[in-house]
Protein: Piwi-like protein 2
Amino acid sequence: MDPNKPPYLPRPPGVPDVPVARGRGLHADESLLGRARGLGVSADEPSVGRARGLAVVLEEPWVGRARGLARIADEPSVGRARGLARIADEPSVGRARGLARIADEPSVGRARGLARIADEPSVGRARGLAVVLEEPWVGRARGLARIADEPSVGRARGLARIADEPSVGRARGLAVVLEEPWVGRARGLARIADEPSVGRALGLAQIADEPSVGRARGLAVALEEPWVALAEPVAGTGRGLASTALDALLFPYVRGSPGLGRYKPLSVAQGMEEEEGGRIGRARGLLHTSQEPVAGKGRSTALFLKESEPLGKSEHVDTSEVIPCLQEEEPPKVQADDPGPGSFLLSMFRGMGIEQGRPWGRGAATLGRGAVGEHKDVQSVVPPVVSAASEAGDAHYYAGGFAGRGLSGVGKAVGFPAGRGSGAPLIPKEIPVTPAVRPPKAEPKMEAGGKPLQKVGTMGHPVSIASNYVPIRCRNEAVFQYHVVFTPNVESVSMRFGMMKDHRSTTGDIMAFDGSILYLPKRLEEVVHLKAERKTDNREIDIKIQMTKILPPHSDLCIPFYNVVLRRVMKILGLNLIGRNHYDPRSAVVLSKHRLQVWPGYSTAIKHTDGGLYLAVDISHKVLRNDSVLDVMNEIYQQSRESFKDECTKELIGSIVITRYNNRTYRIDDIEWDKSPKHSFTMADGSETTFVDYYRKNYGITVKELDQPLLVHRPKERSKPGGKQVITGEILILPELSFMTGIPEKMKKDFRAMKDLTMHINVSVEQHTHSLKQLLHNISTSQEAVKELSRWGLEISSDILVTQGRTLPMETICLQSATFVTSPTVDWSREVVRDSSISCIPLDRWVVFYPRRAADQAEELVSTFGKVAGPMGLRLARPVCVELRDDRTETYVKTIQSQLSSEPNVQLVVCIVTGNRDDLYSAIKKLCCVQSPCPSQVINVRTISQPQKLRSVAQKILLQMNCKLGGELWTVHVPLKHLMVIGVDVHHDTSKKTQSVMGFVASLNSLMTKWYSRVTFQMPNEEIINGFRVCLLAALQKYYEVNHSFPEKIVIYRDGVSDGQLKTVELYEIPQILKCFETFPNYEPKLVFIVVQKRINTTLYAFGGNRFGTPPPGTVLDHTVTNGEWVDFFLMAHSIRQGCGFPTHYISIYNTANLTPDHLQRLTFKMCHLYWNWPGTIRVPAPCKYAHKLAYLSAQFLHSEPAIQLCDKLYFL
Structure:
């Protein structure tokens, strides 16, 4: 017998002759494990578990049930993953599927995606993209790893540093250079070249190193192979491993070698004493160089059998003492109908987060390839037996199984048990094995709601708050969702609708159907087959209706057809749908003096909130003009005949018009000057007709002007169910039959006209609540409306919601030498002009430009500046006054350019203009913000023409000028240190429809008085910020220049995001931000990302004594009407003098700073005090308002990025 190869092992009596596989390899081979089969070469690792494969030099094994071929230096495919890895690839692990590229790590756990070169994958349920040489995010961890990092594994949170291994399992911590991670739930630090303990974690082994396994805790020696008994280490509940004769030859003198079976360990060289028996499993022992990490209570990815009772003795380690506050949960038990092999596999894959009953692998049934009854060879099962020879003999393991494709069809190997500890002989006994079970077919169950979020704060004074939300009670217990299949397929959706309507006797009269998904308020059989006849070819169609889900009545999937029902109710009440709102033309208010009509109406929507189902209803008004588009065109023609077409294009393109014959609104996208109502078009049935005939036949309208051009409306792309994009053709509209909507621009500048209009639009709180109650009364008294609602089991309450909110404490305003608490009206306009600002910039070199006819007003303004500047702490020198011969745009631009060229040290340019001229304003701002960067102030002569108001106007202008120079006006106390607050908003460029503008403003100091601003341009109508990283990197560098350190916490307020874009922002924008932090070594700030929504239909009222009023500033509502998926709240920070309280909605979608709801609300309220253009609170945080002003200026007037020299000043106020 070859002394370098292990002998064949004897088998116990009664066990059939099932030979145990041996490795046919060269020197230094480990034997193949279980019933594994494969060929090894020098330094090979064995195929582990039941895997089968061929290994090459330096290969790691395929672990668990994986099957595949690896090449040189490959890591194995682990768990149930399938795939082939390329050179230096890590495998696809867990449930991940995909192919990794060169040097890639795989997508691990449930993650899906492709990693880049040398990337580690996204692991577990983590989401994200890895970068070069990164290790993946593992488990449910969140975060981005850097170059050569190992991931945060399990549920750990945190970022690992360069070459660090992450905390694995639920552990939290940072590892050191080149460390392998702590695996399982362990906590600890590993050293260079360590291998991890294999619990639930999947680690990477280096050449010849294997980790300590199971729950064992111990340190391994450099270059050691694990102690194996015909197997790679058995993980799970930590059974011991017995060595083979090969082990004895390889490691006769290694300190800490384990014992064979349960008896004494290998002998050591004379003079070398072992410190402790190498007890594996739960045993605790210490070995030497290249320590193994603490393994926690993790379960391994290898196979294990469940013992009927503990075997032998060992020194146990209670890891709950090592890892405080971490307790292991018991794995879910698998119910088995029939005894048989395989449940230990279920336990293993449960430990890996893999559900039972999912078909994986080729020809899979329940558990991979060749489940019971599906393989081609012997199907007899023999229970595995463990036997022991004597105290000095070897412990051996035999297991019966399918001689062909493996036990329970998993790989081609058999699992293995082993002894535990050392000292006592192993008593032969059978180990019960639970069978692999094919789970029964799952019946549709009611969807469960998610765990409620902690979003309710406690700070402030409680107040009674009413809202425009109306409770809805749903009497139905559930809504049933069905999948409908037509065989043969019916392409026409309308034909599908007709076929379903023919079977109302089965489905009922009430249903919601989109062509493939059917919702019913009643339950059908699990599968229903119906027959229908296609009218086009009289072919019989089989309709299969199969139940897929049982939805609770408040499910988000039910909301769309609830709103369809609500539309029917509003139509029953006689309200017309215009756009998304319903209006009552019978109650129209006619303003004949201004040729306007105001239609009152409602905006309605059924929502699912934290409090349940609610009807959100608000008052809306539609302003219609008595002028048709043709009237507007005639008026333009009378004023400018030479440039008639250009002026019409400028006036009409982008306007919204309404066609009163069908009460539909359209946006004018173009004008067809070459077409008229006499032209013909093709109708849906293929016939042709002229516009004149069409309107006469269908609407009884006689077109009077036959030579008028046609208006063009291009509908936006709309998606049908199933994701198909539908693009309809152009819609041509007659100007004679189209009426303008909205308030004319001229009227907006007419104070008296606007006063008359706002009397009917801005209603009081009493009028607002009365209108809401009137609508609820009309619904409850309409039998037809109540019947329509009751079909779906809906019942709308007759009263609006009254609940409890809070009023936040008033803030303290800090000036240079004075502090004061804000008044209930949150107005401090008197204090800021009476006391000095925090810092004032001396204005020594400034120039005032004015036309000749405004010379008197300019001189009076400069004189008033000198009088009011002293008390405000400002120091002004006499400006250089430049009188212009006229007020043409070219005159202003050339004169300013000449002045700035002759005096390059000018601090400020002041321009006094006549009238509201956008072209002149745009030219001045382009010159001073882009071409020759210098802060500028444009003043309308009308603003300074009233002597009684001049002093107050001059004070406000001086404050604004001080801001533009870099001065600081006031602040509030923010207790968070090393904090950066960022505001972001997007505005769409009106002149260039090919781009949009993002405004970015960030604070630079702890007082929130220094700001850094940038602008980026992007594609049209694109709210997602592609240039966010550029702006944030520049802001962080600027912050470092000012403070000599980076901020520890960053709070971002993102404006202009709708509810449908929240997930996109979470998955796209936030990763960009996190990528920025990797640019700076060892920089891991805490991040809070808050979405700001102003355009909402939520209204708040103060309620007391059965009366409704205006809520005070600082009112917060953070429950009942909030979103169940996010931490959000409604805050009304500003003071309202007239009308209702319209709060702002704040949604926290990312928070690693662990700021509580109270912190978020208080910080947001503080930020609403810091807008220096208004001495009071505003609706949104100041950084958001600054970002909006900057984006608006760049999009409307500059159309390019401002000069970088102005980025640290608020030049855009």
